[in-house]
Each structure stands twice: as structure tokens, then as C-alpha cells.
Amino acid sequence: MGVPMSWAARFRLRQYIKASLWIVPMFGLVLGVLLAELALAADRTDWPPSGWHYSATTAGDVLTAIVGAMVALLGFVVTIGVLVVQQATGTLSPRYMRLWYRDRLQKAVLATFTGTFAFAFSLLRSIESDSVPDLGVTLAGVAVAVSLVLLLIYLNRFTHSLRPVAIAELVARMGEHVFTTGAAAIRGAAPRGDATVPAGGDATLPSDGPVMLIRTGQSGAIQAFSTAGLVAEAARHDCVFVVTRLIGDFVPAGTVLVEVHGGTSAPDPDRVTGLVALGAERTIEQDPAFALRILVDIAIRALSPAVNDPTTAVQVVNHVESLLHAVGSARLPGRYVLADRDGHSRLVLPGRDWENYLRLAVCEIRDYGASSVQICRRLRAMLEGLLDTLPPSQHPAVRAELSLLQASIEREFPDAARRAIAQGADRQGIGGQVRPP
User: Fold this and answer.
1) Phi-psi map region of 200: left, alpha, beta (phi>0 left; psi -120 to 50 alpha)
2) Cα 42 to Cα 353: distance, rounded to the nearest angstrom
3) Helices in 265-372 by DSSP H: which ranges?
4) Phi, psi for 257 (deg, rounded to 5)
5) Contact 85, 93 (CB under 8 A)
6) What DSSP designation does 51 have?
7) Model pTM?
8) Cα 279 to the chain's mean position, in Å?
9) What is the rounded distance in angstroms from the CA atom of residue 67 to the CA atom of residue 207?
10) In terms of Cα–Cα distance, which of 260, 254, 256, 257 is closest to 210?
11) 347, β-bridge pairs
12) Segment 382-397, tens digit of pLDDT
């Protein structure tokens, strides 16, 4: 009997499939061969009309040209991919590549090209002087037309979507989706609004020290937790699991990952660590802060002396603000306690609070853009906008960032006239409606 695959291994497998650029094209290759066999079977029934018949020479030339064209187009798409990698790592953020690899259109284009190649190549072997796959040759021509249309869509998509502001919009939208769906599932474990007490459940957590420490056997960044699996495992042993690390943290081998409190029996460490997925880098599935990390990376890259493009950074701040409004509108207690079906506390997860998100979004952009009038004015407009819309409980952290911004402006702009300009709040950086300090 084989050893069952752990949840973490299945998660890593799903991540590999999503990021892989060869699996979907391989399915296209197999599908092309199968469709070629079906086309040959249909030809044997004399179904195609007489106007669809081709000579053996014409059919061979057409299919040979299609095979060569598909190979050339595959090389062209690969070349575009290499250019995208170079641009993303040079002017955007290397972290964005993890999202770009998952683009479905790119995989559909590659699958169509490989499928058309396999279809045409499979038909070539059936061409004889007295036997021509007429229907197959016609379908191969249709497949080429579809491939060309997809290629044009692909070029249009990446010509327009590789601009920093377009990528910022995409990343911010993904971050908001992860926050409002994935994080909401965890926050839903405490519908009373206090995440340290599951509604209708056991409000008492073990006050004594852990009876067992579960350590990770390998190094890696924490990519995801199986909350349902951890709750079920803790309930099975009548204990409470306390996770010691945040999503996105890098943990060396031997780090204490889970503390076990109470319990009638000792859980299997391998089974517990199999419910926590580790990887070489962070992923966005359960980590909306990773989206902020990518946005900030793009902004500070634009503010570097080598690029010196504060306008792009201002455009990225627009989407940072959108994500912060979504995060700040939710209550973030800093830790979550999940209960089993009987209402007993079983799993304690650490979480990021509002200050963590705000500091991640503002700190580096403020430091790298301290000498830019545009950045100072746009950051002030963003922070004052947060004060206008977010609940009062979130205001202290925002006011603290405003104080740091003011101190930075006073340090970088000793001249009173220039300092007065930098202190204004302008949603366009420069050129918009200014709110006086």
C-alpha cells in the first residue's frame, strides 16, 4: 500500500501545476494526436463534401508548412516570455513572476500551438497517393487560424498588461480577493468580533505551558495552513494547537512550529507538520500581505536613482491605498482562535494587525521617496483619506505614520517654501486639488 500524500504535499503539487508552463501544453499535444485520429476515422466514412478534397501533394505541403509554423510560433512565445522575465526582474518586482507564471492565456496559447503541431504532424503519416485526410487538412487550417487569433490576443494582452500600473491593479485586486475570501474564513471562526473567543464555544485556553513542541523538519517560507485539518487533528487528541509563526515567515529546520497544550494523547509530529505547507518563497493564496509586498517593491524600484520615476510610484500608491481601505475596514485582532464543532477551542493562529499592514505599505515608500515632492504629497493624501473613511480604532496607527511623514519632510526640505509645497495633500502628487496641511 502506498503512503498517502499529506495536505502540504498536495498544496505544493497544486502550486507547481499552477506555475508550470509545460503541463497544459502537454495536454494540448496529447489532444492534438487524439483529434487527428478522430479526423482520420471521420474521413473513412466519406463524410467530407467533395469540395473539401485535396491532392496528396497539396495536403502534404499544407501540413508540413503548419508544422514548421507552429514550431516557429512556439519559439516566438518563449522569446516573449524571456523578455517578460527580464523586464519584471529589472523594472518591476521578481515576486511578480510567481503570479505571471499562472497566466491562463499564456498556457492556452502554448497548448493551442502544441496541439496544432501534434495534429498536423499526426496527419502527415496518413497521406498516400490514393488516401488523403481531407477533413483533417481542413481542420488543421482552422486550427492555424485560431492560433493566430490567440497570438494577437496574447500580444495585445502583454503589450498593455506589462505596464507597472496595470500590474499594480492586478496585484491589488488579487490581494483584496484573498483578504476578503480567505481571511474572512478565519475571521468567521469568531463571529462575536473577538477572535480570541469562538462564539458559543470554550473561552478558556490552556494557561499552563505546552506539553509538546512540534518542530519543522525542513526550511522554507510558510505558504499555507490547513486550518480544517489542524482543528480536526487537535480535536482528535483533545488538545489545543498554538501556531507560533505567521503566514509568509521563513522558518529554518528545527524551528518550533506548533505548541501542543493539553490533550489526552500525543499527536504525530509528521502528521501535524504535513498540514503546514512550506516552500522556497511566499505565495498569495493565504497571504494578502504578499500582494502589498509586491506593490511596495514596484514603487520603490520606480523611486530608485537608476529609474527615478516618481510618477509611476504615485500610480502604484493609488492601488496600495485601495488595498489598505479593504484591510482597514475589517477588524484585525492579531490572533484567531478556531473551534471544533462542539465549540471547544482547538487552534490558535497568529495574524497581522492593522499596524503591520500599514507599516508595510508606507514605511519603505516614505523612506525611498522622502526627497520627492510627489511622493510626500500623495502619501499625505492617502493617509488623510484613511482617516476620513476608516473607523476611529484604526486612526492612531495612521496618525503615527502622518507624524513620521511630517518628520521626514522637515528633514528633507529645510527651505520653508519648498517644505510648504511638500506638506500639501495631493491625490495626483502634483497637479491635483491640494488640501492644505
Assistant:
1) left
2) 63
3) 269-273, 288-302, 310-328, 354-368
4) -100, -35
5) no
6) G
7) 0.85
8) 14
9) 70
10) 260
11) 241, 338
12) 999 999 999 999 999 9
